[in-house]
Amino acid sequence: MAPEQSNLKAALWMGGSITCFLVMSVGGRAASKDIDVFQLLELRTVIGLAMLYPLVRAAGGLAAMKTGRPVQHVARNLVHYAGQFSWFYALTLIPLAQLISIEFTMPFWGAILAVLFLGERLNVLKAAAVILGVIGVAIIVRPGVASIDAGHLVMLFGAFCFAVSVVMVKSLTRTESVVRILFWMLVVQSVIGLVPAILVWKNPQPETWLPILVVAFTGTFSHYCLTRALSHADATFVMPIDFLRVPLSAVIGYMLYAEQVDIYTAAGAALILCGNLLNLFARPAVSPAEATVAKP
């Protein structure tokens, strides 16, 4: 039975998704003060896998998670792991508003990759969206005018990795469910990150376990909330709500870390968001699975 179509329910689920992502950024910054990002990612995936199990069981148990495309899952998650590492590492280097703004360039790189590798056409709206996104990033980073922060480059690389991940997962969504994709994401990334985590491992301080658990929970169920939102309304209604993360992250950055938002960040973020709106209306509706796996 198809879920009831309701903009109100979709908005409420998106509220949950946005809250999870914002809380995850706070938890991630707190945890990374004590432990390395590799260790944080490993703990997030292992604990997140345990937290995902009720959804796995509801979807038919471990037997329903069997896949005939293990190579595709591994390849996709190598790229997605690099994106997640970049996101959490950049979180320790640059203000939240800049991080989230640059993260939103992911659809532009995805559009370019889709043209190059999937044979999609770059129409006027998509081209305009890419141009606005590039200009927005240039305004935030201001190469040649201000010194380029390493965090900007790290997050740009992360956004590119997320875009590659989305292009790769388009193929997976033809045969795999959202829960199965999330399950293999956590399993594969747990394996990928095991050795790096062991090499930098240190026993977390007792007070660090709370932000670690927060990151694991919000990192897993932010995707679930987003999927539920997309099941209740069209992507053209749901995805623009996600843009609220930009101003809200600026508010959180100011209140918790005394981060100031300058005119360049505000102007660049505005152009990036405008480009996202153009890109959203220039492409077919986003599937729940595709949107779900495009996040850190």
Summed up:
The chain has 296 residues and is an all-alpha fold. The protein is built from 14 helices and no strands.
Task: Explain what you see.
By secondary structure, the chain is mainly α. The protein has one domain (7-292). The chain is 74% helix and 0% strand. The protein has helices at residues 7-31, 37-58, 70-91, 96-103, 106-117, 124-141, 150-172, 178-192, 194-199, 209-232, 235-241, 245-257, 263-281, 288-292. The radius of gyration is 18 Å and the shape is globular. It starts with 6 loop residues before the first helix and ends with a helix.
CA radius of gyration is 18 Å
Could you spell the SSE succession in H and E letters? HHHHHHHHHHHHHH
Low-confidence stretches: none
Look at the structure and give the mean pLDDT.
87
Estimate nothing, just give the exact number of structural domains: 1
For the secondary structure, the number of strands is 0
**Structural class computed from helices and strand pairing:** mainly alpha
Query: What is the number of helical segments per DSSP (H or I, 4+ residues)?
Result: 14
* Amino- and carboxy-terminal Cα gap: 30 Å
Largest sheet: none
Q: What proportion of the residues is helical, as a percent range?
A: over 70%
